[in-house]
Amino acid sequence: MMLPLATHSAFGDMDLLMRAMDFLPHCFAEMKVWPLAPTLVSGKNNIGLRQLLEADLVYVRDFTHAANVAPQQWKHLALIAHHCYGSFDLAVRCLNMLIELGALPTDRVDDYVASLAR
Q1: How far is the C-alpha of 62 from the C-alpha of 7, rounded, in Å?
Q2: Partners of residue 65 on adjacent β-strands
Q3: 8 or 101: which carries more pLDDT confidence?
Q4: Parallel, antiparallel or unpaired: strands 51-61 and 23-34
């Protein structure tokens, strides 16, 4: 979900808003770092060191309780987590939630984890 925020909005404000809408932070999809002035690496000011300039943080619907998300949404989230973000742990969580809801056979998590090793 992309939210238009004023350029002066703080990360904390956005985080509180997302949590109020029942979303939790999951991972940083992208991060752009920049060196603090006057530090230069190889004479260039565009080689990042540790100062965070901007980041894309992925929020997902609260994944701590199976009932928070409908079975079809768990399936979609598993696919997005796996294919878009390489977030295999979230995909496993989704599979476990589907098992808890009775929407998936119990052996599917083992099958999925085994497929990752191939």
Answers
A1: 27
A2: none
A3: 101
A4: antiparallel
**100/77 Cα distance (integer angstroms):** 16
pLDDT (tens digit per residue) in 30-55:
998 888 888 888 887 777 688 888 89
* Contact call for residues 61 and 78 (beta carbons, < 8 A): no
Q: How many Å apart are CA 40 and CA 63, to the nearest integer?
A: 42
Q: Tokens representing 1?
A: 């979900």
Helix (H, G, I), strand (E, B) or coil at 103: coil
Distance between CA 83 and CA 49 in Å, rounded? 29
40/108: higher pLDDT: 108
pLDDT at 5: 52
State the pTM of this model. 0.80
C-alpha 81/C-alpha 95 separation (Å) is 11
**SS3 (DSSP) at 8:** coil
Tokens of 14: 């956005």
On whether the CB atoms of residues 60 and 37 are closer than 8 A, the answer is: no
